[in-house]
Design a protein that fits this description.
There is one protein chain. With 287 residues, this protein is of the alpha/beta class. The protein is 49% helix and 9% strand. A 4-stranded parallel β-sheet has the order 2-1-7-6, sandwiched between helices. The structure holds zinc ion. Zinc ion binds next to loops.
Length: 287
């Protein structure tokens, strides 16, 4: 448990370092982490079960290592876990060698913990040219972060990226909706109702072109009791219109075989949400 005096001294330490913004973020995270992560996940999993929807959790490997039993419990559900790096750091700041090492370590931990993985999303959705090549080199089937770039985020279909050797990636990339929960909650301080409205509007845009939409809904935010309703409202709407809500890997596999969505669904809705930390202590270590 983190007590207040420890928090205060740590905040004072930060004040000298990176200023007000970091402190505000830390205070927010402290508040969010007051609810145990298992409880946040439980809320999300219950709703997913109710709507027969699947979720993909990009998970930081060092975080997985810090609480293997929680990961094992999460794995007992029919959802997907993807690699979200070894530590939650910005890859473009690392040398190619360091980046490769981060991925190697992450894969090693996933194998050690026996977590099957096919996909990757870089921390902060931050990629350099090296990162884009490394996703290919390490044999990932799909990438869920390159699609956040301005040129891709408004798309509604899978795409490939060009590698430095001139070839197109064999892995599949997916546009990532710009309306992430951190944007809606941290930046715009929207209510759960407004969030649901925005998420549904995005889903409808994808439906118009029989395309796909992928959201980034972090369990640490969307699992809070004041925001969880936005997920159920989105899924209620998804059910009404006959949307398909699979894991990312299932969607990628199905599309590559049939070039359409399962059951001729009018739209494919991909729910993803990064798990960067399980506890506030994980967060402090990272910062
Ligand atoms: Zn992250």
């Amino acid at each position: 448990m983190v007590n207040r005096s420890r928090l205060t001294s740590w905040l004072m330490h930060l004040r000298g370092r990176r200023g007000k913004q970091v402190i505000n973020h830390a205070v927010k995270m402290f508040r969010f982490h007051k609810t145990p992560f298992s409880q946040l996940l439980q809320r999300i999993l219950e709703i997913l079960d109710e709507y027969d929807a699947k979720f993909t959790f990009p998970l930081v490997a060092a975080t997985a290592q810090s609480n293997p039993s929680l990961v094992e419990w999460l794995r007992s559900f029919p959802h997907e876990i993807a690699i979200h790096g070894y530590k939650h750091i910005k890859y473009p700041f690392l040398s190619p060698k360091q980046q490769a090492l981060e991925l190697k370590k992450a894969i090693h931990i996933f194998r050690e913990l026996k977590i099957p993985y096919k996909g990757f999303r870089a921390p902060y959705n931050a990629y350099s040219k090296t990162t884009i090549d490394l996703v290919e080199e390490f044999g990932f089937k799909w990438d869920g972060g390159i699609g956040y770039r301005h040129e891709y985020r408004h798309g509604y279909e899978f795409f490939k990226v060009k590698l430095r050797n001139g070839n197109m990636s064999s892995y599949t990339c997916i546009p990532l909706c710009e309306w992430s929960d951190d944007r809606m909650i941290d930046r715009y301080k929207l209510s759960s109702e407004k969030m649901a409205k925005i998420l549904i509007i995005q889903l409808e845009k994808a439906r118009k072109v029989n395309g796909l939409i992928m959201y980034d809904l972090h369990p640490i935010r969307i699992g809070q009791k004041e925001y969880i309703q936005s997920l159920s409202s989105l899924l209620l709407h998804a059910r009404r219109i006959g949307a398909w809500v699979p894991t990312v890997s299932d969607a990628v596999d199905y599309w590559s075989k049939y070039q359409r969505w399962k059951g001729h669904a009018p739209v494919c809705c991909l729910l993803t949400g990064d798990i960067d930390n399980f506890t506030f202590f994980d967060y402090m270590r990272r910062t």
